[in-house]
Amino acid sequence: MNKFSEGTFVDTFGLKLTEMGPDRVAAEWVVTPTQHQPAGIVNGGVYCTVIETLASVAGSVWLGDRGSVVGVNNNTDFLRAVREGVLRGVATPVHRGRSQQLWVVVITDEQDRTVARGQVRLQNLSPQG
Known about the structure:
Strand content: 35-45%
Strand order of the largest sheet: 1-2-4-5-6-3
Shape: globular
Radius of gyration: 14 Å
Oligomer: single chain
Number of helices: 1
Structural class: alpha+beta
Mean pLDDT: 93
Largest sheet: 6 strands, antiparallel
Low-confidence stretches: none
């Protein structure tokens, strides 16, 4: 999956998957100033992107060849300001049904403190063709 992401938006800030399975997907990245908002902390859009990405990857792995997924809602809470360090995100399922899935993603810092938390609702799409 890391190879598949080369040249994409998440690749621009170095998101690397560290674990991938149908019940859990994890990734990490190093915070750099290019991810900062003007106040010098990680921009909330970075967290939203990571949360959407991990939930979508996890939902896709779980659904497998039964179809594909698209995000239909992303709700992200920003809990702790971060300026530097390594952040880790972990996606776990809340609900996986016939037509939709709901995943929660928790992003933590190097001290295992939660810095952001979000949930993504995915729509399961039937295979094309």
